[in-house]
Write a structure and sequence with these properties.
The protein is mostly helical. Helices cover 66% and strands 0% of the residues. Helix 1 runs antiparallel to helix 2. The protein is elongated.
């Protein structure tokens, strides 16, 4: 539990710094496909590209955290029928 809290706080701190990086990358990506800041679609493109980058970063962080708990300590999954 302690490791999870430390990693969560570190990820939260880094997300503030990485937010600007995602915005700059999204802007470059939109301009690469021909959408400049003067186009009406720019805001939509930048938002979509930023969300894609954040989702990729979140997926990568999740995959890195999976082996944090040893398999012999995991509790087995049990389906519960409420019927």
């Amino acid at each position: 539990m302690r490791r999870f809290v430390i990693v969560s706080l570190a990820a939260l701190a880094l997300s503030g710094c990485a937010g600007q990086q995602y915005t700059e990358e999204a802007s470059a990506q939109c301009q690469a496909v021909g959408i400049t800041e003067k186009d009406p679609q720019y805001a939509t493109c930048a938002k979509a590209m930023t969300l894609i980058k954040r989702e990729d970063a979140l997926r990568t962080a999740y995959k890195k955290m999976l082996p944090a708990v040893p398999y012999d300590r995991m509790t087995p999954h049990a389906d519960i029928n409420i019927y």
